[in-house]
Amino acid sequence: MILKTFVTGMLENNNYLLIDEESKQAVLIDCSQYIPEIKNILQSYGANLNYILITHGHFDHIMGINDFHKEYPQTEIIAPINDKELIEEIETFLDRFIGGFGRVEVPHIDKYISENDELMFGKEKIKIISSPGHTKGGVCYFIDDKLFSGDTIFLGSVGRTDLPGGSYEQIKNSVNRVLKMFNDDVIIYTGHGEKTSVGYEKLNNPVM
After folding, report:
1. Burial of 44 per CB tally in 10 Å (0-12, 13-18, 19+)
2. Where are the alpha helices (DSSP H) in the chain?
3. What is the mean pLDDT of the chain?
4. CB-hemisphere CA count at 13 Å for 170?
5. What is the separation, in whole angstroms, between the first and last Cα of the chain?
6. What is the rounded CA–CA span in Å between residue 184 and residue 199?
7. With contact defined as beta carbons under 8 Å apart, do 84 and 112 qualify?
8. For residue 192, what is the DSSP state?
9. pLDDT tens, residue by residue, 53-107
10. Model-level pTM?
11. Lower Cβ count inside 10 Å, N or C end of the chain?
12. Burial tier of 37 (Cβ tally within 10 Å: 0-12, 13-18, 19+)
């Protein structure tokens, strides 16, 4: 499995591209802005972009969706169902967060998912884990023994909970639940900043 990390967008988000060399399928996790380099990478491996998986509905994780949709109309764009309203109100949220940003088109979403839905990546099932707290609908994705946490878990920290839909009690419960699902050596790929591990967070995350 090939993993490429792209730090992009106004808030320096981590976007992750996974390529399964056997099936020639690819998945992009979060979509802060259009990344032209991805086209070259996919072509070099003869891979197709099957999914764009969104961890939660905040603008900095979804601003690139429409540009990607124009380039890859066959790619299925997937987001958590409980953040549907947040995604559809991206312009209002941006205006509150930044102010005077201007007109923003609602991102194209093909399918809204919840924890019990099934997605396949090559021969492997993508595990969807509900992790509300940063937003109402935040999810983590577990793929190829890697945990992609969005803004739920950071290195020694958690996502902020002071924005609409945030809840400290929820994110505390989510982080505890998620970390207890996995072995200590599982690497966590976060929505911003450095990666971490389940073991490190069990010992050092302040909500544990």
Report:
1. exposed
2. 37-45, 65-71, 84-88, 90-97, 168-180, 198-204
3. 95
4. 18
5. 31
6. 4
7. yes
8. B
9. 999 999 999 999 999 999 999 999 999 999 999 999 988 888 777 765 667 789 9
10. 0.95
11. C
12. exposed
Domain span including residue 64: 2-204
CATH number, domain of 10, equals: 3.60.15.10
Q: In what order do the strands lie in the sheet with 196-197?
A: 119-121, 124-130, 139-143, 146-150, 187-190, 196-197
Q: How many structural domains compose the chain?
A: 1
Cα–Cα nearest to 6, from 32, 27, 44: 32
Q: Locate 195 and state its tokens.
A: 């990666």
Amino acid at 37: E
Answer yes or no: are the C-beta atoms of 26 and 17 closer than 8 Å. yes
Nearest CA among 79, 205, 199 for reference residue 154:
205
Strand order in the sheet with 25-29: 2-8, 13-20, 25-29, 48-53, 76-80, 111-113
Alpha-carbon distance 5 to 69, whole Å?
20
Residue 56, strand partner residues:
none
The Cα–Cα gap between 103 and 2 comes to: 36
- Cα gap 137→78, rounded to integer Å: 13
Predicted confidence at residue 100, as pLDDT, reads: 58
Choose among 151, 146, 195, 153: nearest CA to 177.
153
